[in-house]
């Protein structure tokens, strides 16, 4: 009988073997390579890098493979690796005006300097299953226009800002100040906006999507327009202490959303549109837009708006956005709880007995009358 | 494919890097200095999921050395899967001796139980804590509960215990039963059954509590008074069984109940496997 809870060690070992076996699947089917995942499941890799807070396509692809396509599990794998890496310092903030864009659109103006660039998007695909993809075969290359990588592309928001129509970006860290790092320090509330943005950037896409959506349906609406969304590659620079000047260390793909929202102002202060900001690694427009909506919603207090909707509740949003934390705690219910349950059983039985005793006595009293 | 960082990574002793260990040790020292106070710390992602004991694992990783002997229990047992997994983790990354004997262990990491065998000076009991905030289910906001602790404003807890008496005729809280530490802070003893609460009071062992997901560490130093909350007319009492352990006959230990056949026949056995095996 007691064997039921014994033998954990062997059971675990066998379970590990079994999951590895399941991962590989039918041996007659060719094994996935990391290159295939990187190239052909690139958006999964992007999401894992974003929420895993680690820009490394190869590691993210490995995590996707190891997790058998379970992206939350892959994110966890990458995070657990990332946390062991040494920190060299902060990079210079990336400058997205110097982005080599693959896609750049504005929802606020028909045309903008640098033009609207549709790029690769699902927006205008018809969602018809493409049965030709079921077979493998040579696919033609898409025609490409020459890219002017030297051209700086001003952000739509910056142009509005110059006219005073849009508020400047809310202050982040000041010059020379080290950025707070959510992965090194516990979250303290109320949080600074940089910390909030860090939290949202690694927050679960589904969670942010639902929250952002809720603002659009009236739970803390902030009348959003996509000022601009752009996707492309930006250089990352770092100033090594021993050099004292910035050197470029990498190019990374990012998606940026600069949201233009409902204006604030008063009798004396000229009204001005406000901003929400979203940024994600790789190509992740859903995430970037949702993040920008939630960022703006969380600025309710700062902008003297009433804050009574879930998306505007900083503690609620920031404490529950992380899917590695959420997934762990929700799933830990699978672990044994039989000691606590036994405590409850003992108490519930005792309470039931008391009530039944009372009821029996009451019935006897009634019969006696 | 971009440059790959994939390599066989060599991890530091006890998994965490030394800087992180130092940060956790500082938090532990502060926690020991202010018994029952929840110290925020920069909790790291661990290679085990949140909810599996990442707080306890980080605390253990920060204090363990090669001379230590580690015991890991879950539900009082050394052989439950999660206890096995955590013990295996430390045997691998910290190259440390492990034991199932409560007496031999220098560090005991536990989930949901305090061993039946009385602890002695020099031992450290590391608790895995899911929700460190004892007031959380009464007030979900951290910003509020921190203020309540700062002001020792614990009326809300007393009221909730009173409401339980009004409804059920007794305090119906059975595990994670709130305690007052050193007459100052109300503390969550982690989800141990209230049966174990008296063992926390003036224990000769050091008690460390780690909450990984919530990024909090707190402590009860040796010989610190730990009082389970109650009322004069409803004194604190622990669970008891009419049965005894079917394996060792113990009447003084916490018993687990098992359903042994389709008719729902029950069998009771000690939750503490080391205790039980020693008595047989």
Structure, explained:
The complex is a heterodimer of chains A (369) and B (280). Chain A has 12 helices and 4 strands; from the N terminus they run H-H-H-H-H-E-H-H-H-E-E-E-H-H-H-H. Chain A is of the alpha+beta class and 369 residues long. Chain A has 2 domains: 2-82, no CATH class; 96-120 and 151-171 and 179-321, no CATH class. In chain A, a hairpin with a 7-residue loop joins strand 3 (247-264) and strand 4 (272-281). Mean pLDDT of chain A is 91; it is low at 1-5. Chain B folds into 2 domains: 18-228, Rossmann fold, CATH 3.40.50; 240-280. Helix content of chain B is 26%, strand content 18%. Chain B has helices at 18-33, 54-63, 81-93, 142-150, 155-168, 197-200, 273-279, and strands at residues 39-40, 69-74, 97-98, 107-111, 124-128, 179-181, 185-187, 206-211, 216-220, 226-228, 255-259, 266-270. Chain B has a 7-stranded mixed sheet with strand order 1-9-8-5-4-2-3. Chain B is of the alpha/beta class. In chain B, a hairpin with a 6-residue loop joins strand 11 (255-259) and strand 12 (266-270).
Structure described in brief:
With 369 residues, chain A is of the alpha+beta class. Chain A is built from 12 helices and 4 strands, in the order H-H-H-H-H-E-H-H-H-E-E-E-H-H-H-H.
User: How much is the radius of gyration of chain A in Å?
Assistant: 27 Å
How many alpha or pi helices of chain A? 12
Low-confidence stretches of chain A: 1-5
N-to-C series of helices and strands of chain A: HHHHHEHHHEEEHHHH
- What distance separates the N and C termini of chain B? 62 Å
Shape of chain B: globular
CATH fold type of the largest domain in chain B: Rossmann fold
Helical residue percent of chain A?
25-40%
């Amino acid at each position: 009988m007691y064997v039921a809870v014994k033998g954990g060690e062997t059971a675990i070992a066998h379970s590990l073997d079994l999951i590895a076996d399941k991962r590989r699947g039918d041996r007659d089917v060719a094994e996935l390579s990391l290159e295939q995942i990187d190239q052909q499941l690139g958006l999964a890799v992007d999401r894992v890098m974003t929420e895993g807070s680690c820009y490394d396509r190869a590691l993210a692809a490995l995590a996707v493979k190891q997790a058998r396509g379970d992206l939350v599990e892959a994110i966890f794998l990458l995070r657990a690796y990332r946390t062991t890496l040494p920190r060299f310092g902060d990079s210079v903030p990336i400058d997205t005006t110097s982005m080599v864009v693959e896609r750049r659109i504005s929802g606020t103006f028909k045309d903008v300097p640098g033009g609207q660039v549709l790029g690769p998007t699902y927006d205008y695909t018809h969602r018809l299953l493409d049965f030709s993809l079921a077979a493998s075969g040579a696919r033609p290359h898409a025609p490409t226009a020459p890219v002017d990588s030297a051209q700086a592309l001003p952000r739509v928001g910056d142009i509005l800002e110059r006219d005073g129509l849009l508020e400047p970006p809310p202050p982040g860290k000041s010059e020379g100040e080290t950025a707070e790092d959510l992965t090194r320090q516990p979250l303290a509330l109320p949080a600074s906006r940089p910390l909030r943005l860090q939290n949202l950037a690694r927050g679960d896409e589904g969670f942010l999507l639902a929250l952002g959506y809720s603002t659009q349906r009236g739970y803390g609406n902030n009348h959003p327009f996509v000022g601009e969304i752009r996707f492309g590659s930006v250089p990352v620079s770092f100033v090594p202490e021993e050099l004292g000047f910035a050197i470029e260390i990498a190019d990374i793909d990012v998606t940026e959303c600069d949201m233009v929202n409902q204006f604030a102002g008063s009798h004396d202060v000229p009204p001005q549109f406000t901003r929400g900001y979203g940024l994600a690694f790789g190509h992740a427009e859903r995430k970037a837009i949702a993040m920008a909506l939630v960022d703006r919603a969380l600025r309710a207090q700062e902008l003297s708006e009433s804050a009574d909707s879930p998306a505007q509740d900083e503690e609620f949003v920031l404490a529950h956005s992380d899917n590695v934390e959420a997934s762990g705690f929700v799933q830990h219910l699978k672990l044994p709880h039989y000691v606590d349950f036994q405590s409850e059983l003992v108490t519930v039985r005792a309470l039931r007995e008391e009530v039944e005793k009372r009821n029996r006595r009451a019935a006897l009293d009634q019969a006696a009358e | 494919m971009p440059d790959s960082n994939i390599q066989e990574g060599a991890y530091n002793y006890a998994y965490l890097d030394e800087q992180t260990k130092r940060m956790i040790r500082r938090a532990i020292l502060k926690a020991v200095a202010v018994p029952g106070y929840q110290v925020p710390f920069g909790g790291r992602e661990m290679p085990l999921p949140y909810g599996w004991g990442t707080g306890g694992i980080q605390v253990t990783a920060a204090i363990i050395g090669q001379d230590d002997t580690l015991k890991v229990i879950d539900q009082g047992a050394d052989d439950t899967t999660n206890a096995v997994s955590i013990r295996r983790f430390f045997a691998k990354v910290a190259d440390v001796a492990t034991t199932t004997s409560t007496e031999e262990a220098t560090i005991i990491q536990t989930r949901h139980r305090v061993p039946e065998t009385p602890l002695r000076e020099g031992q450290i009991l590391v608790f895995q804590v899911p929700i460190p905030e004892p007031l959380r289910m009464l007030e979900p906001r951290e910003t509020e509960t921190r203020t309540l602790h700062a002001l020792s404003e614990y009326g809300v807890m007393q009221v909730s215990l009173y409401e339980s008496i009004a409804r059920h005729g007794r305090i119906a809280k059975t595990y994670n039963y709130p305690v007052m530490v050193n007459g100052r802070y109300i503390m969550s003893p982690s989800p141990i059954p209230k049966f174990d609460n008296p063992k926390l009071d003036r224990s000769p062992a050091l008690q460390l509590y780690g909450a990984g997901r919530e990024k909090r560490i707190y402590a009860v130093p040796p010989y610190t008074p730990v009082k389970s909350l109650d009322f004069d007319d409803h004194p604190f009492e622990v669970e008891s069984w009419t049965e005894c352990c079917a394996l060792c006959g113990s009447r003084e230990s916490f018993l687990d109940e098992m359903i042994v056949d389709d008719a729902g026949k029950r069998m009771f056995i000690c939750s503490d496997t080391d205790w039980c095996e020693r008595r047989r």
